[in-house]
Design a protein that fits this description.
Elements lengths: L5 H9 L3 H14 L1 H13 L3 H18 L5 H22 L2 H16 L9 H19 L3 H14 L1
Helix pairs in contact: 2-3, 4-5, 4-6, 5-6, 6-7, 6-8, 7-8
Length: about 160
């Protein structure tokens, strides 16, 4: 089955009643965890971006504590899992400032991570790649915000 273009979906949704829309949303939320998480963000957390960022930071902290530190292979797997989770939450928000804040926080925590990421070329490259991503995201922000976040980026770099 081929998915319909967004414009056709928008037109079809415009013709539905409110109860039909609610039924469709609830049915959509049952199929994938990500759909349910996105609906949760849009309904309950989109209005207060600051608390959303703090809750994601808390989840990052928790996941970093859970990383298996026996060897660098397991550390790499754990950190990539956390990075995928962060990227998912950034997609939900769609806000470039949120992206910068969360990625800077991840890099700060990565620098303080024990054992040091400097001993693993793969982890060091992951860190450097995230710094590039942060730089790109900062360039898309307002000029006043750019200066502040560039200072933070230099601090972690």
């Amino acid at each position: 089955m081929k998915a319909a273009p967004a414009k056709e979906i928008k037109n079809a949704l415009a013709e539905l009643s409110q109860s039909d829309l609610m039924t469709l949303c609830l049915r959509l939320s049952r199929f994938k965890k990500e759909n349910k998480e996105l609906l949760t963000y849009l309904l309950f957390e989109a209005g207060d971006e600051a608390s959303y960022i703090e809750s994601v930071k808390g989840e990052i902290d928790y996941e970093l504590e859970q990383v298996n530190r026996r060897n660098y292979f397991f550390i790499k797997k754990g950190l990539r899992k956390i990075l995928r989770m962060i990227k998912k939450y950034i997609r939900y928000s769609g806000n470039k400032e949120t992206e910068v804040i969360l990625l800077i926080y991840f890099c700060q925590r990565l620098r303080a991570f024990q054992p040091s990421i400097g001993r693993s070329r793969v982890l060091k490259n992951m860190y450097l790649q995230q710094q590039k991503v942060i730089g790109t995201a900062i360039s898309k922000l307002h000029e006043d915000l750019q200066y502040d976040y560039l200072q933070e980026l230099k601090h972690i770099g």
